[in-house]
């Protein structure tokens, strides 16, 4: 464990180097796999329950066993054949044959829904963005689509209280969900939020994955861990998207890499395999292209 933590520290040191706004792949090869935690996305078929599903047995090499445990190995990829170039920088995500065109050419707001049953019924694949009210959900959406104010940003956490659907390339949705944790709303409003949001998760058959945003500039928060555990118990696919990774605090709290590592260690207590994770910053653009590529392979597999 000490060795893995040391390798992880080396990985994050390289990824957060102030000399570049974008992460660099670390070398040698094994540094890219230092204590990375992963899991498969929840599928819509029994085959997809483990995205890296392969026969178990002693025939696997130690490297392949490590990959299957700590990396997100997507469908169509043999763990024995993973190379460094297949791993997205700043993440534990392996890219496979389902990855395709990830460019966002157009985006349009479709509707806001107060109840899950009122959401669009065209069955297009969608990704739900979820997180604490001040985690940077709207900023991430605007960064992904490269258009200002596509999603409402506000200095007042809890502004979004509806399920907002944005249609991308006329083929799939980004869904902005109400933030949780710091919204200054009534107890009844918080209860309603919990009820209709959970209803959305449990009944939305075209949900490809939840992008669970976690603020990397602060220590792990219990509410984020509780949310992740609820999604896990209900077999809802998720990817941890660590936000604000550009915020290097000096002499005040811990650095993003330390907070991410501590969060992963806490998640490991309840997840034998962990969701894919990626580091992002809406300020520098860190992780934007990599996250879209990851979403493309999940979406293309879902479409099969």
Automatic annotation (TrEMBL):
One of its GO terms (molecular function) is GTP binding. Keywords: GTP-binding, Magnesium, Metal-binding, Nucleotide-binding. Transmembrane segments: none annotated. CDD domains: YihA_EngB. The keyword Nucleotide-binding applies. Signal peptide: none annotated. InterPro entries: G_ENGB_dom (IPR030393), GTP-bd (IPR006073), GTP-bd_ribosome_bio_YsxC (IPR019987), P-loop_NTPase (IPR027417). Residues 123-301 form the EngB-type G domain. The keyword Metal-binding applies. Gene3D superfamilies: P-loop containing nucleotide triphosphate hydrolases. It holds the Pfam family MMR_HSR1. NCBIfam families: GTPase_YsxC. Belongs to the TRAFAC class TrmE-Era-EngA-EngB-Septin-like GTPase superfamily. EngB GTPase family. This is EngB-type G domain-containing protein. It comes from Cannabis sativa. The lineage of its organism: Eukaryota, Viridiplantae, Streptophyta, Embryophyta, Tracheophyta.
């Amino acid at each position: 464990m000490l060795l893995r933590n040391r390798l992880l520290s080396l990985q994050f040191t390289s990824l957060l180097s102030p000399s570049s706004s974008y992460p660099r792949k670390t070398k040698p090869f094994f540094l890219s796999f230092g204590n990375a935690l992963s899991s498969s996305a929840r599928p819509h078929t029994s085959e997809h329950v483990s995205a890296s599903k392969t026969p178990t047995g002693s025939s696997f090499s130690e490297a392949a066993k490590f990959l299957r445990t700590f990396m997100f190995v997507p469908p169509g990829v043999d763990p024995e054949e993973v190379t460094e170039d297949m791993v997205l920088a700043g993440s534990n995500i392996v890219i496979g044959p389902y990855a395709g065109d990830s460019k966002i050419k157009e985006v349009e707001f479709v509707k806001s829904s107060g109840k899950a049953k009122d959401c669009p019924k065209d069955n297009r694949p969608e990704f739900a963005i979820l997180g604490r009210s001040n985690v940077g959900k709207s900023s991430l959406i605007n960064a992904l689509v490269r258009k200002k104010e596509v999603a409402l940003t506000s200095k007042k956490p809890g502004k979004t209280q509806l399920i907002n659907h944005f249609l991308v390339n006329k083929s799939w949705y980004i869904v902005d969900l109400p933030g949780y944790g710091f919204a200054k709303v009534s107890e009844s409003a918080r209860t309603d939020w919990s009820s209709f949001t959970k209803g959305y998760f449990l009944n939305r058959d075209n949900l490809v994955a939840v992008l669970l945003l976690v603020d990397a500039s602060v220590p792990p928060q219990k509410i984020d861990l509780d949310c992740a555990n609820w999604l896990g118990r209900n077999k809802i696919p998720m990817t941890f998207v660590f936000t604000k990774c550009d915020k290097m605090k000096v002499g005040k709290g811990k650095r993003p890499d330390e907070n991410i590592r501590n969060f992963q260690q806490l998640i490991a207590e309840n997840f034998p395999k962990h969701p894919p994770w990626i580091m992002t910053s809406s300020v520098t653009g860190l992780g934007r292209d990599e996250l879209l590529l990851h979403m493309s392979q999940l979406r293309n597999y879902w479409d099969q």
